[in-house]
Amino acid sequence: MSEKLKPLNTIGRYFRKKFGQSVYKIPISISGFTCPNIDGTVAKGGCTFCENDSFSPNLAKNSKKFKLHPTMNENPYLTQQIQQLKMQYYATKTRLEKKFGAKQFIVYFQSFTNTYAPINTLKTLYSEALLLDDVVGLSVGTRSDCVNEEILEYLQQLSHQTNPNSNQANEIWVEYGIQTIYDTTLEKINRGHDYQNVKEWIKKTKEYGLLVCGHIIFGLPDETKEMMLNTIKETIKLNIDSIKIHPLYVTNNTLLALEYKNGEFDPINEEDYIELLIETLKILPKNITIQRLTAGINNASLVAPQWCNDKHTQMANIKKALQKANISY
To answer: Is the peptide bond before 221 cis (omega within 30 degrees of 0)?
Structure first.
């Protein structure tokens, strides 16, 4: 008799247990948000894998568009940003309702750095998001060098408020791009901060009682299998609540694309990636939920590796490997 497969502690299972039904994250991209690694505050050009003005003619044409900065006194485009939030939310909500019968949602401020703006702008957008129909919480994507005590204190206040759609406290997450624990790698990818900064602000975020999701990248330049697994082990020690893992893939209009074409970067292959993923899942504590196992892009902007161009095939191969490892997705 075969051994029963052990189920992964996915974010979906976590939500169903907590809310009694499936909860869907709706990604939002608000115009004007940028990053201190793009606007020159901590570095220039952005991370090497990030599409930006320096390498994209289309973006360069729009480089004079309004961009937020935490030191701004006023935001003349806030009304338009609220409208953008609502339009994106309801468009995706309608689709998810029709396709899955979805009833509860979390607004996921996804693109760029969603704490890198004046505090009044952040407070308005976060509070407006929680007022949208059937929203039970927020997830805010950011960098560890773009949060402060005032932002965390406000998110804490929101996390203590009862949500009328769930009759529970608002579900408030902060998602940090950790990527790696190695400062040498962070320098290579032009990250603009070190790992100590990550440790410090994740610790503070947890002290405010907020939920934390850490993003990890496998296949960063010159990293060995041992280095990648060490990143996972050290990330676990940060007391995160959830994790997202994906391979580093190369897209057009990035410095990484130039490095790849010059033979200076060799992307991780699918076999090694899946092997690392399985080893990660074996050591991941049961209390840490899993939000992402892989990623890719299915359009002409993908340069390499080609196995990242079809997420359905990726997931099929990952699930086969999981089954062999006695794990069910």
So the answer is: no
pTM check: above 0.85 = yes
Q: Which residues of 102-135 are buried (b: 16+ CB within 10 A; e: fewer)?
A: bbbbbbbbbebbbbbbbeebbbbbbebbbebeeb
Domain range for 47 is 6-328
How many folded domains does the chain comprise? Answer: 1
User: Per residue in 223-252, pLDDT tens?
Assistant: 999 999 999 999 999 999 999 999 999 999
- Bridge partners of 251, per DSSP, are 302
DSSP at 220:
-
169/186 Cα distance (integer angstroms): 36
Q: Is residue 1 part of a domain?
A: no
CATH code for the domain of 170: 3.80.30.30
Instruction: Give the 3-state secondary structure of residue 207.
Output: helix
The tens digit of pLDDT for each residue in 36-76 reads: 888 888 877 788 888 755 444 444 444 457 899 999 999 99
